[in-house]
# Entry
Amino acid sequence: MTALAYRLAGVALLCVVLTMLSDAFLTVPNLLNVLRQTALLFLIASGLTLVVLAGGLDLSIGANVGLSACLAATAVQATGSVWAGVAVGSAAGTVVGLVNGAIVAGLKLKPIIATYGIMWVLNGVTYWYMQGETIYGFPESFRAIGSGYWLGVPVPVYLMVIVLAAGLVFARMTTWGHQVYAMGANQQAAHLSGVPVSARTFLVYSLSGAMGGVSGVVYLARLNSAEAGIGDALLLPAIAAVLVGGTSLFGGLGSLAGTLIGATILTLVLNGMNLLVIDSNWQPLVTGAIVLLAAAVDTLTRRRVT
Amino acid sequence: MPDAATTLPRSWAHSAASVPGVAYVLPLLLVGFAVAVPGFASAPNAANIGVQSAILLLLALPMTFVIMSEGIDLSMGAVIGFATVVLALLLVNGYPLPWAVAAAVGGGLAFGLVNGLLIVYGGIPPFVVTLGTMGVAQGLALVITDGASVVGIGSALPRLYAGTWAGLPFPIVIGIVAYAAFHVLMYHTRYGAYVFAIGGNRESLLLAGVRVNVCHVSIYALAGAVVGAAGLLFAGRMSAGHPVAGIGLEFDAIAAVVLGGTDRGNGWLPGTLLGVAAVGVLKNGLNLMAVPSSLQVAGVGILVIVVLVIDALRRRS
# Structure
């Protein structure tokens, strides 16, 4: 719990610094914006967190969000129906997750190479499918999923709360959740203790894929436009959110609550750079540096424990 | 094939065990494209594939060492882009070519060193270190160019890329020299034996008194320097420096190495050459069939997954 407390202190410190640096930070519209961006990043990183907890990795998550968003975009455009978009986007992401699960859990391919391969397959298919076109202008009812408010709070925040609650219950209060942690801590021991390792591995990759699809729909509704490169820059922030949130790359240690804090910290940094009018070209550099820093902290603290 | 393993000399048994993936795929691709695509089976096109694959080979050779040592380098594509940008900016601002070359190679070497130090001395998993440096290299390249390509690099590098030596296109000559150098390094020097042992049997190296950590870092440093040098050919090909043009090249390199049967502690350099050829042939053939480049990218991904799945199923049976 102290680890989480440190991170919350980090969030508070960032808020203080940003308040001092920019007059625009501590305003209701900006804070709501931060909340909305945090919710989006959390949704993308939530399934990934489970995969990492289980000792795996899903490098295809960003490309999955991109493809799901583009497919959802054409579905909404073609039918004018909100539900068609939600269904197509979520289904596309879930299929990707099932494929990842099948090749990693079923065929025992190494997660890094397998999901990186899938990432480039999805990337290529998305660019081919979109043919350089941009699809934009969706019905108000669809855009509400990403940009709307309910009782003054952005809609994605409700989704975030639901996913967080479900995820916490799953991880802390169900046998399957405990098995995911056990696998991540020591796969061999978990297997010997009777954990169905392949089945749970399949489950976490499927969930990560499904969350990629859902995130794609919300992301699309937020941007109100879709082009092929929509998911290109999402992998690094998603990994960063998981790592900054204290989920260990070695598996078995961390939580979805941590990822929420990680997503908040990352969003605050990127929001701060926006407010201070720092060129967006700096974003990959800063995100990359945060990933390295968080990984170093993870490794050093982990080493001290063991 | 237990019989082969016991009767053939070790290197051949080793080859027989690790060759499969690409040994099936490359002939299939060659025959398939030769039948289906007019103009594929011709000397000019073969030379074309060679020229197009030279940069990939320069990335795949050090990637073989990296993957053998139980690592991965996701930063190569971003670093080669960074190198082209450094080269181009220095050339545009009037610095002589040798300076620009030194800066590009030095920049690549610096990223390689950072990768190696964080992985070996920091004990941080290779994928996350190189994912982080991928972001940093790409970000630096974007920042120093404002996200635009850098043109006006003069004619030296494009002439180099388009030139010939003894009747062979210059990129192919570079590829041959680089392969020969890595082959000698891997199979005929002590260093090569260490590289095998780092991923295979680190303990014995330590016990033998080898400075394992230094050696391990040097694998990433060498990779960075070679990728920086490959930036010369890449800038020559584009006649420019471009901050994000290299993104994804690292996947082609990983694909070539994995197709070639390299795994931790178990590398096979001729396999990497075949893997590069397979990726090059696939892209060239699809290109001649007018398949858009986006689907060529997907094609390489599918090729890797399919071959790995076949290998996994074969191992199981």
